[in-house]
């Protein structure tokens, strides 16, 4: 099955055409990167994939931020009918920015993503605590579970955000520039970790990055957004950066 299949996608904010016939296909189990210059439309494409921006007919009228057409299928289903959003996890850009004094532990940050399963007014049970521990172990942060989030380095915080995205055991993981605040060493470590999780857990990954040079050695598919369209480049996916 394809994790994502996009055909002839157009999107504009008012008169500004941002996507002008994007087509791409991400097969399940692969790791893909999406690059492109500032303003190329990468975040717009991610927002369409996450159902935050409309395609086709919509009933919200003037309140829409923009309008689009074309087709998007996620995990084999038309996005307009797609309901299984818990099978998709998203790591936003600068996810930890401004959390320096946030009074929550690593464990609480990861557990918060299980709120649908736990419910707002119930405490986490043994099963949920185990899920949190397993997600932290996947990113090598098990020992830090009681540490306040603001007392971690940028690289460690980014790994906690990854654990937070993994705790729901998603089929598809979407990341928006996860290494933009990291130095070279931490960025490479993050890519290796992502590749390992992709290979071992068979989680399909789509990552937006400006770091095409380093990230491309971990990718099966490399797409570059340019002039509203996607250009495909060969990926290596061997992780031998
Ligand atoms: N909500 C919005 N309303 C109007 N125009 C927008 C909106 N969001 C983005 N744009 C415009 O659409 C274009 C694409 O923006 P987008 O954020 O998708 O690019 P990007 O590739 O993610 O850029 P960057 O690498 O800088 O994050 C830009 O010209 C931007 O100004």
UniProtKB/TrEMBL annotation:
Transmembrane segments: none annotated. It holds the Pfam family ABC_tran. The keyword Cell division does not apply. GO terms for molecular function: ATP binding; ATP hydrolysis activity. InterPro entries: AAA+_ATPase, ABC_transporter-like_ATP-bd, ABC_transporter-like_CS, Metal_Ion_Import_ABC, P-loop_NTPase. Keywords: ATP-binding, Nucleotide-binding, Transport. SMART domains: AAA. SUPFAM superfamilies: P-loop containing nucleoside triphosphate hydrolases. It comes from the Bacteria. Residues 4-241 form the ABC transporter domain. Belongs to the ABC transporter superfamily. This is Metal ABC transporter ATP-binding protein.
């Amino acid at each position: 099955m394809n994790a994502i299949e996009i055909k002839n996608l157009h999107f504009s904010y008012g008169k500004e055409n941002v996507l002008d016939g994007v087509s791409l296909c991400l097969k399940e189990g692969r790791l893909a990167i999406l690059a492109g210059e500032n303003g190329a439309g990468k975040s717009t494409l991610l927002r369409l994939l996450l159902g935050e921006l409309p395609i086709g007919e919509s009933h919200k009228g003037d309140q829409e931020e923009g309008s689009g057409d074309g087709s998007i299928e996620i995990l084999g289903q038309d996005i307009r009918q797609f309901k299984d959003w818990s099978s998709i996890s998203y790591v936003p850009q600068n996810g930890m920015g401004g959390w320096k004094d946030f009074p929550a532990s690593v464990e609480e940050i990861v557990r918060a993503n299980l709120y649908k399963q736990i419910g707002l007014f119930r405490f986490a049970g043994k099963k949920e605590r185990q899920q949190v521990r397993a997600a932290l172990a996947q990113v090598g942060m098990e020992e830090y579970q009681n540490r306040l989030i603001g007392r971690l380095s940028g690289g460690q915080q980014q790994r906690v955000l990854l654990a937070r995205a993994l705790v729901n055991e998603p089929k598809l993981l979407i990341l928006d520039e996860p290494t933009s605040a990291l130095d070279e060493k931490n960025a490479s470590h993050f890519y290796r970790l992502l590749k390992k999780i992709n290979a071992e857990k068979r989680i399909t990954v789509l990552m937006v990055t400006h770091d095409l040079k380093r990230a491309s050695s971990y990718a099966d598919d490399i797409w570059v957004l340019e002039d509203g369209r996607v250009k495909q480049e060969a990926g290596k996916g061997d992780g031998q950066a």
